[in-house]
Amino acid sequence: MERENGANEQNVDIPEYERNCFPGKMDSPLFAWPWDNLGIFKYLLYGPFVAKFLHSTVWEGTQRDRRWCTHILILCSLRGLIHQLWSSYSNMLFLNRNRRVSQLGIDFKQIDREWDWDNFIILQAFVGSLAYFSFPSLACLPLWNTKGILCCLILHMTVSEPLYYWTHRLMHSHHLFNNYHWLHHSSKVTHPFTAGHATLLEHLILCVIVGVPIIGTTLMGFGSMSMIYLYVLIFDFLRCLGHCNVEIIPHHLFKIFPFLRYVIYTPTYHGLHHKELGTNFCLFMPLYDALGKTMNYHSWDIHKETSSGKNGKVPDFVFLVHVVDMMQAMHVPFLFRSFSSHPFSIMPFLIPLWPFSFLMMLIMWAKSKTFLISFYNLRNRLLLQTWAVPRFGFQYFLPFAKEGINNQIEEAILRADRLGVKVVSLAALNKNEALNGGGTLFVNKHPNLKVRVVHGNTLTAAVILKEIPQEAEEVFLTGATSKLGRAIALYLARRRVRVLMLTLSTERFEKIQKEAPMDCQKFLVQVTKYKAAKECKTWIIGKWTTAFEQYWAPSGTSFLQFVVPPIIPFRRDCTYGKLVAMKLPDDVEGLGSCEYQLQRGAVHACHAGGVVHLLEGWSHHEVGAIDVDQIDVVWNAAIKHGLKLL
Length: 646
Hints:
This protein is an alpha/beta fold.
């Protein structure tokens, strides 16, 4: 059955339209779903099943009707759960980054296209109800029938598998691909949700493929409820497996049992179909590709390489973050991909999950190490990753936790150094002055580090300064003696802008004032109360500010801030800036999650500062106090590389 020709030779006959027709036509009959315009209200389509169940239970109706509606609702819930669990596993980069079939990240465009991936579950729920009206005896099936399980398996292997194979090949013909099947292949990286991302016509055909073994077994008198549940759920499980983009089947299994490579496909096998459209058409059994001479026999070599766990790539840049609070902890791609693709906000569905987040906090606090949560590619295919320290915001202010947190940050930096990472950028509290001196602790302790440690505060200061109105003659600054506050105050003093520095420490104020040129020192003014800024319309917030303190700002004040978490906007007559951030360059690929409350494609300025450090190839560490002379240098470098203000 095997042929000697390779993947490229098998791909020669692929029509040119298959390579260039993304996107194809969208106005073909049975392309769109009838409930496309309903949005989230499409889930009301389950209402008739719930209503029928309640009516049969509370008022009147047959036991059979209630039973069948219950089965449909349970089965739909389990199918959604299977896809969600596979999605979570697929996005757990800290577990599977070295066994990913494609190293590309999933971007926002793909996430939006696949948003309604579960349309097929609604469709098959209605098909199930039609099957019940056509065959009412389905509701009276026994719980178990061993013969039925075997019969269903045989019908799947002998009818559904070849039917899907030939239908799939037909979908790659010029007309059907250009009008329908291109939508499924528009996803660059396979994902469990990609399995359900297809047109109405394709899922109607899939209903037939799924229904043949079930209806056939039932008509033969061997049907059972267990058979229906097992077949449908295993069918979904295997579809998700093939699309999960993570190789989980060890190559040793095929070496010990060579025949298995024709019985069950792998994520690598199906992933090749999305790269080389003329190969690997099977549903679950590569046997039919072998019989149809469409098998890519390079699949096994690639599968061996991928499953060996050596398929990962060393990142060029690492952004080391931390969790803000237990709600924000759920804003990660491996929990809800769609939720993490939008700026974080507290949603009602998160509240029931709070206890699980609290439990995970305790587990992470006790045992977890730094873990990878996302990655994306920059120009020249530079790989940028985000690692997370398993600590929550409030833990950084516990005196007894200081040593443990620093140990985890240090371990992450040393791990990056061993891997060959070029730059590690520290986020928010990971570079807290009281914690480690803005990263100075690690650089002094390990003077031979090859990886560059960057706090990114130079670019953060630059962004804040660029947001200050050019005509401003006076600003009010809280957190004035912090690293950022000091740099902002000195820079503005050089521009002859009067800075009201809120601080109770005269010693620290005078120390900063002496750093300014003699003719600029008069522009730095110490204040000890918020009342002193009641005439100032530009407030730069570097320290948490209460509603009462904000009350002193005059109407029309602009609140710029670099405090984490951001202050609560109490004043409706004032404007509030978000956390200091920049928009990434347009050539970023694979970015599919939002950074905390920032919009899509934006990152915190300290994150962007580390990226600029990498792109410029600077060899120095950026830790400790901010060099005011470097603010304009870093800003110009950021603009040169395509970063933009929000």
